[in-house]
């Protein structure tokens, strides 16, 4: 059995399918297929409320591969499950209900975290004097939008959460959701997590 690190990026960057990654992953033929298995409506942006924000699994996969390249399968599965739930299968980059100004990115971070994330990329001078929505606009291009979940995980979740999630266990998922500040047993979240576990063979 191969180590759990780096399987997700290797799928696309190496131009190979998943045969070499079995038995950890056995139900998809590319990174885009894995994303689609977790986010079942991400195959198309037809009918999206904000077409300019929507990304399909194929469009998002290169950016997700880049941002998730240094994580284990368990961590990748959990972050993709979170992204799927929070962005409605990558249909939204900003919060439309209740429409909180400045809340967004692929993992729908609150404005204070969006501000921190933007500063980590561009520096404090780039966000000074900007409205919450203007700051959000800095980090919604794909290169940054799909790096927000890993950034939050690395900077806001402690070593205990990282250690628990590396194996992709349900206890790790619960610890991760505790870091996010949401109920790990929420039915909608569990649907995404269960699909992610199935997709990655966890």
Tell me about this structure.
This protein is mostly helical and 202 residues long. Helix content is 53%, strand content 0%. It is built from twelve helices and no strands. Helix 1 crosses helix 3 (57-67), helix 5 (111-122) crosses helix 7 (132-138) and helix 10 packs antiparallel against helix 11. It is globular and about 45 Å long. The two termini are 13 Å apart. Residues 1-7 and 9-29 have low confidence and may be disordered. Keywords: Signal. Residues 1-21 form the signal peptide.
**Which structural class should the secondary elements be placed in?**
mainly alpha
Supply Rg: 16 Å
Q: Quick one: overall form?
A: globular
- Total strand segments: 0
Assign the CATH topology. Lysozyme
Provide the CATH top-level class: Mainly Alpha
Distance between the termini: 13 Å
CATH architecture: Orthogonal Bundle
Count every helix, treating DSSP H or I runs of 4 or more residues as helices. 12
* Mean of all residue-level pLDDT scores: 86
Approximate strand percentage: under 5%
Helicity, in percent? 40-55%
For the biggest sheet, the summary is:
none
Runs with pLDDT <50, length 5+? Answer: 1-7, 9-29
* Helix and strand sequence: HHHHHHHHHHHH
Domains counted in the coordinates: how many? 1
